Every structure is written in structure tokens, then in C-alpha cells.
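Hi, here's the filled form for the chain we discussed.

Project: internal
Contact: R.S.
Residues: 141
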Amino acid sequence: MKSMLLQIMFAMKLMNFLIKNIDPNRVIRTSLSNAGSFIYSLQYTMDHFQDEDKVYFAEDDYIYTNNEASIIEEGLDLGEYPSGYDHPDKYINHSEGGELTRVLVSKSSHWKCTNSCCMTFATRVKTIKEDLSFFQKFLFG
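And the returned structure, exactly as it came back:
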């Protein structure tokens, strides 16, 4: 029960963050599964936004800082898919099976090049279109 309550609180905090930082008419909440809502989001994004528009895909289990929007903007200046995802498996020594990486620094944060993240990241619409076949391969098999 406590875990469910925390999930609801995180979802409410995320929704408040999105509405505060993004035009509420551009925030859509679904009741689909994680993969289902991601597929929906990709298609919706390509159908309704311009190529240069910046988009943010967000799962409901992330904790945000007060300056997260500006940090995400900084990430988009450094790469095509900035994400706040971090996990202990990202710090395994390369010689022990971890990934080979490098660290980038922006004004407010550090970033790590990685081979994977969850479904929470920012990008531009044109990048989604360019990489659509990659998404389809891993979403549809």
C-alpha cells in the first residue's frame, strides 16, 4: 500500500511539473501500458509537432529537481537523447562487463554516454523520425 501511495504521489508530482513547464494542452495522460503509451506518444509526436520541436517522454516514477527543465535543455545541447536515468549497473568497470563511456559536463549537471536508458528522455521530433525504424524494431520485434 505504501509503495502504491508513493507511485501516485510521484505521478502527481510529475504531472504538476509538466503542466508548470509545458503548455497543459500539450500534456496527454493515458491509461495504456508503458510500451503502449510510448508507441502512442511516438506517433502523436510525429503527427502533431514540428521537426525542430523538443519533446520529453516521461515515465511516472522519476523524481525531479526544481531546475530539471533547464537541465534537460542543457542535455539537448550535448546529445540527441538526454535522460535523467541512472542506475548502479552503469558504474560497473568495463573490464567486468560494464559499458565503455565518457562523461560530459554542462552548466548544471554531468552527463554520461550510455548504451541504454528507460523510456524517459528528451529529443527533437526530427530525431524520432530519423530513428523510427530503430524504435519499431525494438518495440514490435
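Let me know if anything looks off before we file it.
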